[in-house]
Structures are given as C-alpha cells and as structure tokens.
Amino acid sequence: MLAVADGGFPATVWYPAGLFALVLLTIVVLAAPPAGLGPRTLVVGLCAYGLFTAVAFASVAWADAPGEAWQAATGSSSTGWFCCW
C-alpha cells in the first residue's frame, strides 16, 4: 500500500500507516503479551525507547529546521512502534 503512494514518503501517507501500526501493536500486546521476555528486559527496552523518543522530540527545540525535526521525530516514533511489533 505504501509503495503505491510515493513509497510512503509523504507525511500524509505514513502518519495513518504509523497510527495503524501503533493501534495494531497495542491490541496484540494486550491480547497476548510476549512470553519470551522477562519483566526486567521489557522494562529496560521500553525505557530506552521512551528516552530515545523523548530526545528526538526535544531536538525540535534546537533544530535549525523545526518542521523537519518534528517530522523525523514522529517518523522514528512510528518506526519504533512498528519494530516493537
């Protein structure tokens, strides 16, 4: 689907795709939590991802092009959720 719409590059294409992936991940994790990960591993991984996401969004404050930094931060956030799935 994303390949047809300019490879998913425009934000109007990948924002809905990222939101869909986030909702799908939430449903999957709530319905059947991963059994192979211990609670400590899961907490450390989620905290590291949360810190990365926070720094990505904070970088908007010092970026030369805040719009592009915002787009990169939301893209990395969406990509990270998709990778967790």
Describe the fold and architecture.
This protein is an all-alpha fold. It has one domain (6-84). It contains three helices and no strands. Helix 1 packs parallel to helix 3 and helix 2 packs antiparallel against helix 3 (66-84). The two termini are 19 Å apart.
List keywords for this structure.
single chain, 85 residues, mainly alpha, 3 helices, 71% helix, 0% strand
Reconstruct the topology from this structure:
Layout: H1 11-31, H2 39-58, H3 66-84
Helix pairs in contact: 1-3, 2-3
Q: Helices and strands: which structural class?
A: mainly alpha
Sheet with the most strands?
none
Query: What is the number of independent domains?
Result: 1
Task: State the order of secondary-structure elements, H for helix, E for strand.
Answer: HHH
Assembly level: single chain
Helix content: over 70%
Task: Give the termini separation.
Answer: 19 Å
Cα-based radius of gyration, to the nearest Å: 15 Å
**Low-confidence sequence ranges:** none
Estimate the global geometry from the Cα principal axes.
Answer: flat
Q: Number of helical runs?
A: 3
Strand content: under 5%
What's the average pLDDT? 75
What's the quick description here?
With about 80 residues, this protein is mainly α. The chain has 3 helices and no strands.
